[in-house]
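Bumping with the actual sequence this time:
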Amino acid sequence: MLIPILLFYAVAFGTITALAAKRKNRDQAAWFLIGFFFGVFGLLAILVIQEKADETIAEHPSTSQELPQPAKTKKCPDCAEEIKLEAKVCRFCGKRFTEEEVESQKQAVEQSSSPPQQPSPSERLRTVRCPKCYTMNYETDYYCSACGHGLD
């Protein structure tokens, strides 16, 4: 009489554990066996573990594909919210931009995002080496910034 009762409880815990595993995206057959052999402990184990994420592997961009560039934005002059650079109407306050404003803002952003131009050699500050520690210093310095030795 004891064996049928134990078998009933084992099948019941196995089934309940498998159903809980299904809700958490886990293998139902494996969890049925865990619930069948370990009973309430198997059920507690499946209830404690976190839900398994889908096993879709995100594809990495190949070297030939370009990475997406961050969206360029501008600040609305009326409400000070960030909106897309190409926007003709602010989605927060409804301010309308003319075509000229949109184009001038695009050009301003493109100019500011371009790399800064290097100064010409005549505009750059000249540097000299310290004769004692060989640290580079500006030509206008009188003493070395590292060791304090006088620069001639």
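The tokens above came from a reply further down the thread. The first helix runs from residue 2 to 23.
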